[in-house]
Specification:
By secondary structure, this protein is mainly α. It has 2 domains: about 140 residues, no CATH class; about 325 residues, Neurolysin, domain 3, CATH 1.10.1370. Helices cover about 65% and strands about 5% of the residues. The protein has 21 helices and 3 strands. The chain has a 3-stranded mixed beta sheet with strand order 1-3-2. The radius of gyration is 22 Å and the shape is globular.
Length: about 500
């Protein structure tokens, strides 16, 4: 067998193993009995160690070297596969097997402890495991290596090449304009409130309806419930979504649109990339651009609801029969500084991410201690958003990411927001009649463009190269700020 064919076979094996780990993760967050937590932690540790052995085996290093010697004869996609697998190999060979097993075991335990702490709104329940996770994440940064700041090594895991300095500059461009917009637009639109609860069955049915309209293929995916919505891949034809539901919240709509955006990205990857390291979104920033594109740019716009608001009224007459379309669209875009990141409006959302970035940077460099987090969280929310945090559940415990050990993940949300605005500008140039397209509910036209321009390529192109291909420019804050200014100035009339 030729070296390239052997490398493809090796890639398929590693992909299968990671999908098995993802299935265990999905089960833990969706269906696993609470008391099975320790068993699952042991299973994660064992399987993660076995997978790691295959990821760092000399056999793989030799194959990579053989294929690299033939690089001049490789196609663009073959070069991309080599690039992605070489990067993964280099990262994994820096991490000892014992570290990988312990990290996997601890994150499995931490997720169950985080859930308990959140339910009881008591940070001290989660604190000991978080302290260990922070210590392991610092160790991970040292193993991986970095040029300037230890947080750089963790950022790079989620967005290749991203540095602390770059994230600092990004937020430096955003912070003052966003604070000014909060002052300009906050309180000008009235948030929606509901006296009648939404039925659980009705919420799930409408969420499924929106997913189908977007183009989510239920023969290649499913929708389940979890404490924190997420999307995962268990195979090329197995892309799964979870959502959460509350009696008086529109989470069921915007959670479905958000996770649906992630899932459409995965379902849109070309079949020829299946069972390889390229059968994945190229980065979390680009991935997040797709979820925020559908959730906010499309899903909070008037044209989209011209098509779907009558159906929402029909599904929930007690809540919406007396509400007009304009009032509804203004309500779902109300700028209201609040406590919860996932419920935040587009103007304040990135300030939530900024808070997490500053805290994570402090934790990894050692200037912030885990025990002080509830107080630091309250102080930053008071300073940045002008709100008082009444409880740990609505404060430091609201996000699941730290229980996953995902330090360096949060800045990709803001990258996604910026990229989504640039991608939207590119789509509008392609489809000058975009308002009518959305008002007609012709979401397939939007999805097919995204598949052609972004989704189908999987991880073939690096994030910035892909963004330049689609939009003609590298990532910038200006299109996003212009998008917000135009949108909210129009909404307040």
């Amino acid at each position: 067998m030729k070296p390239l064919a052997q490398l493809r076979k090796y890639s398929a094996e590693l992909v299968d193993l990671h999908h098995a780990l993802a299935l265990m993760q999905w089960d833990q967050e969706v269906r696993m009995p609470r008391l099975a937590g320790e068993d699952r932690a042991s299973q994660f540790a064992t399987l993660s160690a076995l997978v790691h052995r295959r990821e760092v085996a000399p056999e793989l290093g030799g194959l990579l070297a053989e294929v690299e010697a033939q690089k001049g004869n490789l196609s663009v996609e073959e070069c991309a596969l080599l690039r992605v697998m070489r990067r993964s190999y280099e990262q994994n060979t820096r991490l000892p097997e014992e570290f990988v097993a312990e990290f996997s075991r601890l994150t499995s335990q931490a997720q169950m402890r985080w859930l308990e702490a959140r339910e009881q709104s008591d940070f001290t329940i989660f604190q000991p495991l978080l302290e260990r996770l922070v210590a392991l994440s610092r160790q991970q940064a040292e193993y991986l290596g970095y040029a300037v700041h230890p947080y750089d090594a963790l950022l790079d895991l989620y967005e290749e090449g991203l540095t602390t300095a770059q994230v600092t500059r990004m937020f430096g461009e955003l912070q003052a304009p966003l604070v000014a917009m909060v002052k300009k637009f906050a309180g000008r639109l009235t948030p929606l409130s509901f006296n009648e609860p939404f039925s659980l069955a009705g919420q799930e049915q409408f969420a499924e309806h929106l997913l189908v309209a977007m183009g989510f293929d239920f023969s290649r995916g499913c929708l389940a419930r979890s404490a924190h919505p997420f999307t995962t891949t268990l195979g090329h034809h197995d892309r799964r979504i979870t959502n959460r539901y509350a009696p008086e919240s529109l989470d069921f709509i915007f959670g479905a649109l958000h996770e649906g955006g992630h899932a459409l990205y995965e379902q849109g990857i070309d079949e020829r990339l299946a069972h390889t390291h390229l059968d994945d979104g190229v980065s979390l920033g680009i991935h997040e651009s797709q979820s925020r594109f559908w959730e906010n740019v499309v899903g909070r716009g008037n044209p989209f609801w011209q098509r779907f608001f009558p159906e929402l009224q029909q599904a929930f007459p007690a809540q919406f029969s007396l509400l007009g379309l304009t009032e509804f669209v203004r309500g779902i875009n109300a700028v209201t500084p609040g406590l919860i990141r996932v419920d935040a409006d587009e103007v304040t959302y990135n300030l939530h991410v900024l808070i997490r970035f500053e805290i994570e940077k402090g934790l990894i460099e050692g200037s912030v201690q885990v025990a002080d987090l509830p107080g630091i969280w309250r102080e930053k929310y008071r300073d940045y958003l002008g709100v008082e945090v009444p409880s740990d559940a609505e404060g430091v415990l609201q996000d699941i990411h730290w229980s996953h050990g995902s330090f360096g993940y949060f800045p990709t949300y803001t990258i996604g927001n910026l990229a989504a605005a640039q991608i939207w500008e590119a789509y509008k140039q392609y489809d000058p009649g975009f308002q009518q397209t959305l008002a007609d509910g012709n979401l397939s036209k939007v999805r097919e463009w995204l598949v052609r321009e972004i989704h189908g390529h999987g991880s073939v192109y690096l994030p910035e190269a892909l963004l330049v291909r689609v939009t003609g420019a590298p990532l910038s804050a200006q299109p996003f700020l212009a998008y917000l200014e135009e949108k909210f100035s129009t909404l307040i009339g």
